[in-house]
Design a protein that fits this description.
54 residues, 0% strand
Length: 54
Amino acid sequence: NIINMVVESGGIEYAYEVSRKYAYLAQQQLLLLPDKPEKQILSDIADFILIRNF
């Protein structure tokens, strides 16, 4: 089935690595913004995406 194909082909790990890359890039861009609550919320969202479990 398709789920097994994705798992066996390393698709989960690949997707995780891509998400880590983009979360890192997003947080680097956030460093350019002034410190405000909204900035912290966006940073927290990026962190949450990387630590959540399915």
